[in-house]
């Protein structure tokens, strides 16, 4: 296998990685609908097909019947009723804001509808250096906010959203850890009532949410909302990944299902019935996820809400999760940090997808974190880890490339004979073609192949012998892909500086210096490699590769570019040793 083929394989793998990242596979949509907030600004969301259908109707043909009312109790499963005195009107005299401050988060809630208006992460700044806001501006503009209740009855939904809940607050410690608990209660005194409680340990991103509602003496289980929109997709953050929001679902024990906002249409929500383990919205580095106290039969609806501001139309992803019969969920709102997620013990570490080669990626990930403790800089950590990987593979790579180089030199030496042979047979074929003798032309081709194989045997050339040099390179592909995955998803690289102008390894080089240098080093490596390739066309193709790679890497995170640049520099050193060895062997011969 020649160098051109090797480069084609590596480039193909890189192309597939980019394609899967930008255009992940989209499962077939399901079409049944659940109730949406039909009142207020949230009604600007374009309803999906069948949005007016009653949620208790059966689902598509061949499916199990849908749950009996997303906003009501499932058959045979009693729902919790609000803890408010029957027939008593309970409400606050005026609207007020409730604040929860912990070392990790700053949360603001309004008693109007008992909803979240702000959820900031104190340890993760935005572009302006302020704590990152995970409640989208769109949610406030649409009046469609996290922890909002949705019911089957649009009028009841509107009343619960506009109600002024009475607030009680409790501070304390549990197991030596401080917590804050805020409870909301409201009742109109005529049968419609609701309560919500948010319990948040100060040392955790995981909150407990308890909720209940009833209407006319009938206990309900409201649908919970996170929306519209999520996190930094409100102008606070810029860069390659700041505008990609995903719906994420773990249901029926299947693989985690993720769909980018761009894959949904305003009139076609993504709706999923079944046993819900957890559901939420996420971007590259952060997530807001509802986790039922136990896997529960429910319905998740991801839809686009339409917002028009200053004459500009935008769509924002919203999640509505109905869990009939359940009155408590855990709510994670925070960073997709693998150690934090795994430490919760509820399976949220699966939000981070280490890919097909996860068994390799995880050790590399922990090796990167281990080295960072000593370097204090993730840029130098990437450099050191790249060197270590290259050194580990050096014996295999060096041996394999030496064999390839020897075979290339032999092929180069016999090229004049091969060319003369092919020209001779071409002239003979031309003569036979003029005579119209197709059988003779076929015989000539067989004779040429036999003579060519005899030449290779006489010169001790095995045309497939260079394949032995490909194996070490192919063995690297899983490690390259695993390292690529780590650098692509690790929140540790977010806003991690390297040196000089590179202040964020998770974003592209603002001046494109490192991609250009990377392309130059790759060109040097190609020139050094192609000196033994006899075919001028192959050499020209190899010289085009650095241009293609430079263009591809211009907008890649600078941490990835740094890895590839260091790898190229080490490759140049290795190729120098190979060329020197080849020159010495040639002189001795």
Key structural traits:
disordered N terminus, 19 strands, 11 helices, four-stranded antiparallel beta sheet, Beta-galactosidase, Chain A, domain 5, single chain, alpha+beta, 589 residues
The CATH architecture of the largest domain can be named as: Distorted Sandwich
CATH class of the largest domain: Mainly Beta
Indicate the percent of residues in helices.
25-40%
Total strands: the figure is 19
As for the CATH topology of the largest domain, it is Beta-galactosidase, Chain A, domain 5
N-to-C CA distance: 25 Å
Total helical elements? 11
Written as H for each helix and E for each strand, in order along the chain, the element string is HEEEEEHEHEEEEEEEEEEEEEHHHHHHHH
Mean model confidence by pLDDT: 79
Count of separate structural domains: 2
Give the radius of gyration. Answer: 32 Å
User: How much of the polypeptide forms β-strand, as a percent range?
Assistant: 15-25%
- Basic shape: elongated
Please tell me about this protein's structure:
By secondary structure, this protein is of the alpha+beta class. It has two domains: 180 residues, no CATH class; 322 residues, Beta-galactosidase, Chain A, domain 5 (Distorted Sandwich). Helices cover 38% and strands 24% of the residues. It contains eleven helices and 19 strands. The strands form two sheets. It has a 15-stranded antiparallel β-sheet that branches. Strand 2 and strand 3 form a beta hairpin. Helix 5 crosses helix 8. The longest helix has 58 residues. The two termini are 25 Å apart. The N terminus is likely disordered.
